[in-house]
């Protein structure tokens, strides 16, 4: 029970990686704060978390809207009086080649994947600085290195790296550790939108030559949130089947 009575907020936890992470924290005794814009799926996740016997709070909030983010973190403090872990997971794609990308596609992705991550990190940092402890895990992507048809997504995920390193430096003296994970292709709804031919192209340069399962990524999320990772901050850890090697 690694996270017994620890309060863990996972954004975008109605499905995919966020849902898997929330369930994994719940199994380890965590008090889980679920967040998403999709109320229906969020309710389903809440039921699954409650089945495990974990305490849980669900907040429908758009992470790209500051007032909604601040309202969510205020509720967490009112209800539980603490926040131990933030997993900044909510993310979207709106793919298109540069010459065809609309202003809306660009702004939506930057708003959710970068500005939303900042808003949540900022709210969490205020709570964690005062507490003198905390863990923030931001989900970047292998697309941060550049990816055809994803100029908006790639820019947002590279931005998450700069944000992570700056936050790690600023918050280290307060014992708040901030890291990012850079996943390769992970088997979720987001990946199911990728056509089979395109997926084969993605897999070709990956040494393990397969997609990852959400559970495999969540093992790393839980490790970074745990006491075992107490000397790790400001890192961007690839979880991508060996796709990118430092
Ligand atoms: N699946 C992959 O291959 C992959 C690879 C690299 C990085 N990632 C990143 O991992 C994270 C999770 O991805 P996933 O595959 O589970 O995606 P997903 O689409 O299955 O789930 C994302 C969840 O975030 C929610 N969400 C979207 N916008 C939101 C907002 N503004 N506020 C709150 N919730 C919002 C969605 O409703 C959804 O439930 C994302 O940041 C994604 O960019 C995924």
Task: Please supply descriptive tags for the structure shown above.
single chain; 246 residues; alpha/beta; Rossmann fold; seven-stranded parallel β-sheet; 15% strand; binds nicotinamide-adenine-dinucleotide
Description:
The protein is of the alpha/beta class. The protein has one domain (7-239): NAD(P)-binding Rossmann-like Domain (Rossmann fold, 3-Layer(aba) Sandwich), CATH 3.40.50.720. The protein contains 8 helices and 7 strands; from the N terminus they run βαβαβαβαβαβαααβ. It has helices spanning 16-27, 39-52, 66-80, 103-131, 151-171, 189-192, 196-203, 214-225; strands at 7-10, 31-36, 56-60, 85-88, 134-139, 176-183, 236-239. A 7-stranded parallel beta sheet has the order 3-2-1-4-5-6-7, sandwiched between helices. Helix 1 (16-27) packs parallel to helix 2 (39-52), helix 1 packs across helix 8 and helix 4 packs parallel to helix 5. The longest helix is centred in the middle third of the chain and has 29 residues, at 103-131. The structure holds nicotinamide-adenine-dinucleotide (NAD). Nicotinamide-adenine-dinucleotide (NAD) binds at residues 11-12, 14-18, 35-38, 62-64, 89-92, 112, 116, 139, 141, 183, 185-186, 188-191.
């Amino acid at each position: 029970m690694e996270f017994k009575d620890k309060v863990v907020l996972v954004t975008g936890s109605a499905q995919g990686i966020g849902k898997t992470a929330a369930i994994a924290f719940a199994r380890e005794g965590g008090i889980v704060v679920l967040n998403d814009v999709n109320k229906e799926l969020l309710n389903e996740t809440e039921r699954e978390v409650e089945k495990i016997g974990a305490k849980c709070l669900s907040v429908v909030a758009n992470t790209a809207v500051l007032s909604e983010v601040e309202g969510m973190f205020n509720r967490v403090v009112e209800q539980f009086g603490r926040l131990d872990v933030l997993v900044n997971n909510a993310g979207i794609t709106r793919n298109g080649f540069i010459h065809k990308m609309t202003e809306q596609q660009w702004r939506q992705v930057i708003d959710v994947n970068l500005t939303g991550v900042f808003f949540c990190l900022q709210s969490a940092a205020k709570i964690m600085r005062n507490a003198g402890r905390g863990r923030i895990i931001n989900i970047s992507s292998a697309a941060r290195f550049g990816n055809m048809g994803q100029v908006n997504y790639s820019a947002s995920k590279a931005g998450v790296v700069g944000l992570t390193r700056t936050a790690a430096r600023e918050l280290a003296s307060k014992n708040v550790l901030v890291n990012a994970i850079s996943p390769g292709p992970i088997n979720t709804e987001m990946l199911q939108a990728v056509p089979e031919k395109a997926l084969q192209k993605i897999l070709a340069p990956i040494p393990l030559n397969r997609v990852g399962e959400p559970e495999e990524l969540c093992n790393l999320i839980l490790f970074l949130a745990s006491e075992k990772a107490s000397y790790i901050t400001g890192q961007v850890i690839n979880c991508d089947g060996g796709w990118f090697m430092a």
